[in-house]
Structures are given as C-alpha cells and as structure tokens.
Amino acid sequence: MNTTLSHTIHTDLKKTHATRKEIKTFYDEATEDYTFWSQDFNMHFGYFSFGKTNLLRRDTMLNEMNTQVLKRLELSSSKQFVADLGCGMGGTMRHFLDRHAALSMIGVTVSDFQVTEGNKLLKKYPAVIVKEDFRNTSISSNSVDGAIAMESFCHSGHSVDTLKEAYRMLKPGKRLVIGDAFLKKSPHKLCLGSSYSYRKLCEKWSLEGLGIIQEVKENLEKIGFSKVNVEDISPRVAPSVFHVPFAIPLFLLKKITKGEPIKKQSWDNLKASFYALTSGLHMKDFGYYLITAEK
C-alpha cells in the first residue's frame, strides 16, 4: 500500500505545471477574497520582528515583510523607478510609495481583475499596474532601479527565463529581491508527507512549482547577478503562516453568515493556504527565503 501511494504521489508531481490561463483564472476569481487575509491586500506571508510587529495582528507582519524587502533594495533618496513582478493588487507597491517620496513604480500581473481594481487603489500614486507576463515584459532594458518578486516567481517555477527577464530590465548595480518559499531538495526526494503537501499546494495555487534554493542561487549567478545573498527567514515567517488555521474558519463563517456562495477558486485558495501550513512543518524539505541579487 505504501509503495503504491508513494508511486502515485511522485508520479503526480510531474503534473504540477500551471498554464498561464490557470494562473490568470485563479487570480481573477480569488483575488477579492484576499481581504480575509489582509485589509491592505498584501498577498503574501509576513515577517515577525520583535518590537515592530504584533503576533495577533497579521497585517503588521505582512507590512513588515514589505519593509524588509524595501530595505534590501537599498534605493537612494533620489528619483527611483521600481518594478513589482507579479504585483497582485499593488499592496506592496502602495507600502513602498508611502515610504519613498521620490519613487515611481510599475506592477505586472496577468489578471484583468488585479489590473482594474489595483489601479483604482493606486490612483493617487505615481504608479501603474499593467497586464503582462513577468517572463516577457515591455519594460525597457537597463531601466529600473530595483525589481521585486513577492511570492510570484513560483508561478513559473522560479525559471531561468523569469530570472533573465528581471536581470534584463535592471540598471547595472541595481538589485532584485525575491521573497518566496523554496524547496531544499529535488521534489522526488521529498518524504511522502512533503510530496503530498507540495503537490496539493501547486495544484490549488496554480504554481508551476517551487525552485530548489541552491539551484536558483546558481542560476542567478550564471545569468550574471553578483552578490547573491540567500537568507532563510522561515522562523520569521512562521508566525504569519500559523494564522492560516484561524483565518480560514473566519472567512467561511463570514461567507455563510452573509449567504454568499463560495467559489471554486476560493475553495482552492483556502485549501492551498492549509497546504502551505503543512508544507512549512516539513522544515527539512521547505524553507522561506529572501534572496537579494545585484546586476
């Protein structure tokens, strides 16, 4: 029985690739539900910092993650232009823009819903969200003073093509910062529990897969990035991940109380959040990292 189960799980790992259409559909349908996770539409996990964040207030940790990413870009106080590759509703963009007076930004997403609604939230800012694939954008080469990817590059499996596109648009000496979950080993070397959680996580969140952290680091260096710094911040992220089992029931109760139907993509989003939690418990196989790389 165990042999059969193992074979099934490892075989299904080959089926995690998400199409552009699946990713687009997921975000078009599920984005509005992210208000249950963050009033600021931060579509990522958080960063716990003693004295700066509150364990019981999730948005303090989510916004602290934004702060940590902004810090690692090392932007000057002069006029700067930054790209958010996989920007969601622009939550991170608004956080940056509120804290850097001379900053302008462009966000990239494949979701029509995020373009329309995100730009409404950015009306007062020198920023825009455009509908483009972050693997092939219209952003000019050597034109941005920084690029970020907050839990977005996983939709392309942290592919070499994705990293090359980020490198292309950056000015020399400028930085790419990636905040995401990564594998610590090949998918086929995961234990049964990790394999199952990983397969379900990719399926429900329309992920092509998670990059293997050492391979991603090596790929960045091969492309031409220097000063590639990899920080395992899993302990900092864990407190926000543990909000998942509390947030899900509250979201469902809210929907039921209002008599609102729960869409398939909403269910998938909730299930994926649960599998993110179970994956995080397998610390030998998964980790959450901040990667900083300079062109």
Give keywords.
11 helices, single chain, seven-stranded mixed sheet, 295 residues, disordered N terminus, Rossmann fold
Describe the structure.
The chain starts with a helix and ends with a strand. The N terminus is likely disordered. The longest helix has 17 residues. It has a single domain, classed as Rossmann fold (3-Layer(aba) Sandwich), CATH 3.40.50.150. The chain is globular. 44% of the residues lie in helices and 19% in strands.
Kindly summarize this structure in a few lines:
44% of the residues lie in helices and 19% in strands. By secondary structure, the chain is α/β, with parallel strands linked by helices. The protein has a single domain, classed as Rossmann fold (3-Layer(aba) Sandwich), CATH 3.40.50.
List the helices and strands and how they pair.
Elements: H1 2-12, H2 20-30, H3 58-73, E1 80-85, H4 91-99, E2 103-109, H5 112-121, E3 127-131, E4 144-150, H6 160-169, E5 170-183, H7 192-204, H8 213-223, E6 226-232, H9 234-241, H10 244-258, H11 264-280, E7 286-294
Parallel strand pairs: 1-2, 1-4, 2-3, 4-5
Antiparallel strand pairs: 5-7, 6-7
Helix pairs in contact: 1-7, 6-8, 7-11
